[in-house]
Amino acid sequence: MDTQKITESLSKIFHTEGHRIVFWYDQDQEFLDTFQSLDLDDIKLVNLSEESLLEIKVRLELEDLDSKYLLYSPTQEPEPEKDWLLDIKLYSRPFHADKASILLNELKLQKQSMRAHLNERKKFFNSRDRVNRLKKLVSTDDREQDIDLKILTVLTRSEQAEIFHILMKLFGEMCVDRDCDFKSPTKSWTEIEKFGMAPFFWEQMAKAFGYNVDSPSLSDLLIRLLVNDFAKNFRGDIPGSLSHFLLNDKTLATNASVFVSQWRSNLIHFRQYGVISSEIAKELRLDEHLINCTEECLLDVMTFEVVERQVIRSLRTKITQGDLQKPANLKTAILRRKDGHWTTIQLDEYGNNGNIYATTYNALESTLDLLTIRQKYDAGFSFASAKDMYQAYTTELFKFDQLYRLFHEDADKVELAGFDIIKDVQKVVESCYSGWYLDQISMNWGSFLEGENGLLEHWSIPDINKQQDFFVHNVKPVLKSRPNSRAFVIISDAFRYEVAEELTREVNSKFRFKAMLFSQLGVLPSYTALGMASLLPHREYGYKEGSDQVLVDGLPCSSLDQRGAILSKHDGIAIKATDLLAMSKNEGRELIRDWRVVYIYHDQIDSTGDTASSEGQAFSAARKAIDEISSLIKIVVNNLNGSNVFVTADHGFLYQDNAPSPLEKSALTYKPDGVAKAKKRYILGWELGESEKAWHSSTSKTAGTNDDMEFWIPKGINRFHFAGGARFIHGGALPQEIVVPVIHVRELEGKTAQKEAMKQVGVSLLGSNRKIVNYIQKFEFIQTEKISEKMEARTLVVSLRDGEQLISNEETLTFDSSSDSMEDRKRVVKLMLQKGSYDNKKEYSLTLRDPKTQIEYERIPLTIDLAFINDF
After folding, report:
1. 27 near 75, Cβ under 8 Å?
2. In this structure, are residues 809 and 775 in contact, taking their beta carbons and an 8 Å threshold?
3. Rounded Cα–Cα distance for residues 661 and 663 (Å)
4. Domain ranges in the chain?
5. Could you tell me where the DSSP H helices lie in 417-447?
6. Lowest mean pLDDT among 302-306, 599-603, 668-672
7. Residue 121: CB partners within 8 Å, gap ≥ 6?
8. Of 112, 543, 552, 677, which one has the fewest beta carbons inside 10 Å?
């Protein structure tokens, strides 16, 4: 070591650390010349070999109590019993000029005994970069094990000096993008071996996981950790071909699960985990071993992605084979897996289709819900009156259509991602919906249409407004309420009732909005020209003589400009939704400034479904419609100060994913005279007469028109022809077509807004015991409120923590029950405590956090007392 470094080290000891007396023994006399050449300003240099030790003792303890002394001896340090200056040494500071000693000083380590250990690691300390990185991690009271752990941290470039994080970095190096090589040495592992740290590393693996094998390797350790996590959560005996990978110490094997759980949930390392675990699953041929496993066995296993596929296969098999004796169990399994690792991460290989497993589970959940409601009506539909059936549709039967749409919306994404795993489920869905529900609803509703007292003669439902009275019943009361009040009407073409019900829930989840869903009896035939005309303000309306053109108060109304002209007579304006969405706040305000009635025309569903080339996208169009109308409502309320917004439609629609069969075609044996317009679901004309293939009535009876226009509509779900697309239809008399939604959206203010604001359900821990006595602990939570119009689901990540330090696995729970039963709203989570020393007098915590925001919902104090189990 050169003179400058020695001078710097001594100056630091005297001036920075504040020592008065420093002893320096140099038995090999390496630094005699250096000592004699030192220039330390106010430090007195004494060569002990040239002075009387008694004189030195008297001087230091009696005569000169203020000066600083460097006492150098070119000899070996004497034994304590022969050391005249021993008492002085007890309050002084030793100095060594070897590399290990300088490192000791540089690292600010207090224990002089660490010199030998640092000397053994001298190869590591040859690099100034490694030393500098280590200095950032070292604490003054670190011992040998602490230093070695931090050396591993430097070599692996880990985020924390903690064995779990070091392992994550080591394993992560096995990945390059989507490729994985877990058998070849990584760069960090090569350095660990190069600097002699491998023995320490394997000691830590033995302590942490009980990993003791004759020829340890990273690849073997990796396989054992993953297999042990798999086994820990597997219900039953794991496949025999995997059993030899199990760790012997069950407590430490739990530690393996804690590590694997933390690894896959780590925001930095979870992608590498996905690649590596998939590669290990291939190596173990895990898919072959899981082929007969049911979802019950795998319910809690999150180790491998291939498990997710097997769970889905098992659920698919039970659904397709009609094994629905306990549908609640299957629903529970789906909800559990939806909270799991593989459904809550971004799976890059599936592009923009979202998480394909979550989407698949959503499709399966919709199927189960559909089949469950089907079981409720197993004997078929039976209603005493048209009013009863209408009300049944608006309260429950619409869910058949909604669940069918939601299933296909998700199934389409699954198919686009290249999965064919739920094609067999689709057959079950089609059998339920197209093969049973549509037959039931068309047959039952059809029975109320025919006859002298049927709906075709008396088109009305008690207590239900008619579509042609929309303006009178909804808009006029708003205009009369205050002189300057303004009404906004969003009319979405083919926006059927079940889609509106979902939008209503969406709007009610937003702060300051209150949406109420009603229905009105749509006009018949249920098609655009007649439906749009009926919604406009009018004294009378009907067909132009000899034509299928609809007039409102004698004026045409098919175009936006024509509707605007009619509205202008009632202080109103017509706007295209696409134009409003593109406007700035000031442009929108300027446009509506002089008008009290604003009709906004939106067309997403009908423009997509009513075209043969795109009718298969009708359900994705419904999703876009929900999103766009939600945005329109926000613009109207926030930018245009609209406090009263109505959302309605001209008609609904029917959609079947499978092309209709020839049996669903009502082929006409002759074309009647006087036909004005012929479409798949209706024929307009004059003096049409009767047909056994069709229902016959007039628009004066079913739409309130002032003319003699008649129509035919095919019975049930039939079509007159299939040309131009046949899966998406409207114009007929089924509830899906003529139950027209009306959503009234109001802006809430002040305390009313606070009261009506959407809230998340509450969650409470059950039981009074707040002590953990086992490494595996179950906690039971209860959802304190059921899901409702103003109460939405809450998802929480549950874990055990020491302050902020994670000491367990993390589990996700979603509380989304709409049941009145408290028992149905209970959820159980199993947490595995990391192996370690826990103070039974210290406070630890059960932590509940929002997975998206990381905001802490609750921190429940508890103690950990493992004394009993540690005794055995």
Report:
1. yes
2. no
3. 5
4. 1-97, 295-375+385-433, 467-753, 759-870
5. 423-432, 438-446
6. 668-672
7. 147, 148, 151, 195, 196
8. 112
What one-character-per-residue DSSP string does 666-720 give? ---SSPPTTEEEE-SS-EEESS----TTEEEEEHHHHT--SS--EEEEESTT-BS
Please write down the long-range contacts of 291-297, taking CB distance under 8 Å and 24 or more positions apart.
Answer: 295/330, 295/333, 295/337, 296/235, 296/333, 297/234, 297/235, 297/236
Helical ranges in 157-304 per DSSP H:
163-172, 187-194, 198-209, 218-233, 250-265, 270-283, 286-289, 295-298
Q: Which pLDDT value is given to residue 871?
A: 39
pLDDT for res 252: 86
Query: What are the structure tokens assigned to 55, written together?
Result: 């004189």
CB 838 within 8 A of CB 805: no
Residue in the structure block whose two tokens are 């000096």: 161
Residue 716: count other Cβ atoms within 10 Å of its Cβ. Answer: 18
Strand partners for 388: none
Say yes or no to pLDDT of 542 above 90. Answer: yes
User: If you search the block for the tokens 């003319």, which residue do you land on?
Assistant: 707
The pTM score is 0.84
φ, ψ at 438 (rounded to 5°): -60, -35
Task: Encode 610-643: b = buried (16+ Cβ within 10 Å), e = exposed.
Answer: beeeebbbbbbbbbebbebbbebbebbbebbebb
Q: Does an H or E element contain 778, and which?
A: strand 776-783
Q: Is the predicted pLDDT of residue 740 greater than 70, yes or no?
A: yes
For 128-138, write each residue's pLDDT tens digit: 899 889 888 98
The answer to whether residues 312 and 360 touch, using CB atoms and an 8 Å cutoff, is: yes
Give tens-digit pLDDT for 468-526.
Answer: 999 999 999 999 988 889 999 999 999 999 999 999 999 988 767 889 999 999 999 99
Q: How many Cβ atoms sit within 10 Å of the Cβ of residue 48?
A: 18
- How far CA 624 is from CA of 503, 604, 745, in Å, comes to 11, 7, 19
Give 161-164's long-range contacts (Cβ < 8 A, gap of 24+). Answer: 161/137, 163/204, 163/208, 164/259, 164/262, 164/263
b or e along 200-229 (b: 16 or more beta carbons within 10 Å of the residue's beta carbon)? bbbebbeebbbbeeeeeebbebbbbbbbbb
Closest CA to 283 of 299, 301, 308, 306: 306
| Per-residue pLDDT tens over the stretch 346-385 | 776 555 567 899 999 999 999 999 999 999 998 999 999 9
Note the CATH architecture for domain 759-870. Sandwich (2.60)
pLDDT digits (tens, 9 = 90+) for 595-629: 999 999 999 999 999 888 899 999 999 999 999 99
Question: Quick one: which of 341, 266, 254, 251 has its CA closest to 305?
Answer: 341
* Closest C-alpha among 209, 214, 192 to residue 201: 192
C-alpha span between 4 and 363 (Å, rounded): 74
Are the beta carbons of 585 and 639 closer than 8 angstroms?
A: yes
Q: pLDDT tier at 742 (50, 70, 90 boundaries)?
A: very high
User: For the chain, how are helix, strand and coil distributed in percent, rounded to 5?
Assistant: 45, 20, 35
Is 793 in contact with 816 (CB distance < 8 Å)? Answer: yes
